[in-house]
Amino acid sequence: MQENEVPFGLSSAGTELWTGVTSGRELDAPSKVLLVNACRIADRLDDLVETIGSRLTVINDQGTETINPLISEHRQQYATLAAILSKMGLGELPKSKSGPSKWDELARRRQNRNAVPQLKAA
């Protein structure tokens, strides 16, 4: 593999992260290992978003509607990616520019569901 050649197997998010970080930089071996793993996590996050789709809740084995467990996995992967990038001195991940996310929608629905009706005093 050449100096900054994109590692085999990365999808679009991972490739974009790799080229964005390595462009104009020389990385030592430990930094490359961290970056490759960050790129794989970025790809995994895209896969999770696609898999979750609009299914914010699922019915569990007891027949109860619960949050889709992939949402928790997405949150963990995102936190890991942010930690790796921070460790590499690459700063925070950019904020979403497309308005409310699926996660915001889930929080709104949970808030509406848990809202207690206010009783008027007689």
Give structural notes.
- It is a single chain.
- With 122 residues, this protein is mainly α.
- 55% of the residues lie in helices and 5% in strands.
- The chain has helices spanning 12-22, 29-52, 69-87, 102-114; strands spanning 57-59, 65-67.
- A two-stranded antiparallel ribbon has the order 1-2.
- A hairpin with a 5-residue loop joins strand 1 (57-59) and strand 2 (65-67).
- The protein is elongated.
Distance from first to last alpha carbon = 77 Å
- Rg estimate, integer Å: 20 Å
Mean pLDDT: 85
| Spatial sequence of strands, sheet with the most strands | 1-2
Strand tally is 2
**Multimeric state:** single chain
Task: Specify the overall morphology.
Answer: elongated
The helix/strand class is mainly alpha
* DSSP summary: helix tally: 4
Helix content: 40-55%
Strand content: under 5%
Biggest sheet statistics: 2 strands, antiparallel
Q: How many domains in all?
A: 1
**Stretches with pLDDT under 50, minimum 5 residues:** none
Order of helices and strands: HHEEHH
List the helices and strands and how they pair.
Layout: H1 12-22, H2 29-52, E1 57-59, E2 65-67, H3 69-87, H4 102-114
Antiparallel strand pairs: 1-2
In short:
Residues 91-122 are annotated as: Disordered. By secondary structure, the chain is mainly α. The protein has helices at 12-22, 29-52, 69-87, 102-114, and strands at residues 57-59, 65-67.
